[in-house]
Each structure stands twice: as structure tokens, then as C-alpha cells.
TrEMBL record:
GO terms for molecular function: G protein-coupled receptor activity; olfactory receptor activity. Belongs to the G-protein coupled receptor 1 family. It is found in: Cell membrane; Membrane. One of its GO terms (cellular component) is plasma membrane. Gene3D superfamilies: Rhodopsin 7-helix transmembrane proteins (1.20.1070.10). The keyword Hydrolase does not apply. Pfam families: 7tm_4. This is Olfactory receptor. Keywords: Cell membrane, G-protein coupled receptor, Membrane, Olfaction, Receptor, Sensory transduction, Transducer, Transmembrane, Transmembrane helix. CDD domains: 7tmA_OR4A-like. The gene is LOC101360448. Signal peptide: none annotated.
Length: 310
């Protein structure tokens, strides 16, 4: 049941209240966000315009870059704006939208990472059946299921948030609206609600991480039967995926699998997976993937040449 609240807006304290430090936050995170948009935009355009990326791996990489872009956009612009302005208020409805969007795209990214692990498992462990198992129809259905699963997860978060009564105060000691900071402001016992949060977000993060790491252990173990060249290429791809998984899931598990307690490092850890990881993902995938780098170089060189000839 949704409850009436006396609170119509929240005040976000941000990362710092020091004016000089807020300018530093504004500058650096604006650069991070613009870098995230540019890096992921390059990957999205390269995959969509190059015929060399016809495999399911790049199909899923396209959606990973898309989710990174949307995930970062659901958080970073507001954070950057609040570091620039003195009035850091956010309306109740805007707060709920941020909770929904950040969890939606964050959960969608988790499912895409799982699909990428499945794709690598089939490609390395069952290469003769790869085309049959990972057909375009199957991949499209899997991505659709990921969209639906992310939507269900986010709707649960919103339902739990809207069921909380807020009577005041309305100051959130964070730079974003998330379910855990909101729990501290609720004027009711939140023990059961926090358990529901852990069983929702916490379980998704932890189970997904264990599944992913277990799958990559199986994949790496199976590489012993491959040729040296094939083993090197597959190992490079898997290491990239493992790095992304650890960088994303480590902070998420720390934040969402514990009781409703606050640590001084929470904000910086949240910054790492909400702002840092969306920027690191495209860098990791492009720097460790020769095909992506070469295709990017060729594609954008052709575009520059054609622009100069006009």
C-alpha cells in the first residue's frame, strides 16, 4: 500500500559541502561523464556500422555500452549539476525516477554481463554448436528477457520506496537517490524493508557474481585443450570480461548485501561503480580487443577522409 508523505522534496548533501571541493567535483566528474558518453558512443557506432562485428559477442557488447551510457546518464548529470549549484534539492517524483532508472539500467547491465559469459562459454566449450545455440533469434530473446528482468527488479525497488512513510527530515547524506539512503529517512521501522532490499538487490548481485566467476573458471579450465593461438585470444577476451565483472560487482555487493548501516567510504565506493565503471568498461574492451581498435581506426579514418573531400 502506498502511503501519504509530508515530504515533497529531498536535499542531497553530495560528496562534499566545501565550495572549493565542489568545484573540483564538478570539473572531474564532468570530464568522466563526457568521456563515458564519447567512449561508449564510439563503440555503439562502430559495432552498428561495421560488418566485421556480426557475432553475438559484439551484439551483447553493443547493449553493454548502451546500458553503461544510460546508467551513467541516470546519475552523473544530476551529480554534476548539484556540484555547480547551491540549491541541491530534488523533488520526490524526480527522486523516485532516479531510483527506478539507476536500478533498471544497473540490473540490465548485470544480465548483459551474464549473457556475455554464456556466449563465451558456448564459443569456447562448444564451438561446433555455437552458431546453432547462439543464433540471432536466441540472442534477441535473451536480451528481451534481460529488459523484462531489469524492469521487474526496478518496479520492486519503486514499490518498496513508495511504501515508506517520510515525515521529515528530508536531508539525504548522499549524491543520489537510492533505496538505502531513503531508508534512513523513513519514520517507521525499516528492518523488514531492509531485508527485502538485501534479498532483492543483494541476492541478484551476489548470485550473479558467483555464477559469472564460476562460468569463467570453467571456461579458463577448458582452454587447456585449445591451440596456443586460440588459447591466447580466448584468454584475452575472458580476462577483459573478468576485470569488468570484478570492478562492477565488488562495490555493488559491498553496498547492497549488508544491514542498513553507513560507512564513511560508502559514497566513494558508490562513485566507483556508478561513475567509474561505465567509463572503464569501454576502455577495457577496446584496449584489450584488437578487432575493435582496428575497426574503430578504419571507420573513423574513412569518415574523416570523406568529410575532408566534401
Amino acid at each position: 500500500m502506498l502511503l501519504n508523505n509530508n515530504v515533497t522534496e529531498f536535499i542531497l548533501l553530495g560528496l562534499t559541502q566545501d565550495p572549493a571541493k565542489k568545484k573540483t567535483v564538478f570539473f572531474f566528474f564532468l570530464l568522466f561523464y563526457l568521456g563515458t558518453l564519447l567512449a561508449n558512443f564510439l563503440i555503439i557506432v562502430t559495432i552498428k556500422t561495421s560488418q566485421a562485428f556480426g557475432s553475438p559477442m559484439y551484439f551483447f557488447l553493443f547493449y553493454l555500452s548502451l546500458s553503461d551510457t544510460c546508467f551513467s546518464t541516470s546519475i552523473a548529470p544530476r551529480m554534476i549539476m548539484d556540484a555547480f549549484l547551491k540549491n541541491n534539492t530534488i523533488s520526490f517524483s524526480e527522486c523516485m525516477i532516479q531510483v527506478f532508472s539507476s536500478h533498471f539500467f544497473g540490473c540490465f547491465e548485470i544480465f548483459i554481463l551474464i549473457l556475455m559469459a554464456v556466449d563465451r562459454y558456448v564459443a569456447i566449450c562448444k564451438p561446433l554448436h555455437y552458431i546453432t545455440i547462439m543464433s540471432w533469434q536466441v540472442c534477441s530473446v535473451l536480451v528481451a528477457i534481460a529488459w523484462v528482468g531489469a524492469c521487474v527488479h526496478s518496479l520492486v525497488q519503486i514499490f518498496l520506496a513508495l511504501s515508506l512513510p517520510f515525515c521529515g527530515p528530508n536531508v539525504i547524506d548522499h549524491y543520489l537517490c537510492d533505496f538505502q539512503p531513503l531508508l534512513k529517512l523513513a519514520c517507521t521501522d525499516t528492518y523488514v524493508t531492509n531485508l527485502l532490499l538485501v534479498s532483492n538487490s543483494g541476492v541478484i548481485c551476489t548470485v550473479s557474481f558467483v555464477m559469472l566467476m564460476f562460468s569463467y573458471v570453467i571456461i579458463l579450465h577448458s582452454l587447456r585443450n585449445h591451440s596456443a593461438k586460440g588459447r591466447k585470444k580466448a584468454l584475452s577476451t575472458c580476462i577483459s570480461h573478468i576485470i569488468v565483472v570484478i570492478l562492477f560487482f565488488g562495490p555493488c555487493i559491498f553496498i547492497y548485501t549488508r544491514p542498513a548501516t553507513t560507512f564513511s567510504m560508502d559514497k566513494m565506493i558508490t562513485v566507483f561503480y556508478t561513475i567509474g565503471t561505465p567509463l572503464l568498461n569501454p576502455l577495457i574492451y577496446t584496449l584489450r580487443n584488437a578487432e575493435v581498435k582496428n575497426s574503430m581506426r578504419k571507420l573513423w579514418s574513412k569518415k574523416l577522409i570523406s568529410d575532408d573531400q566534401r
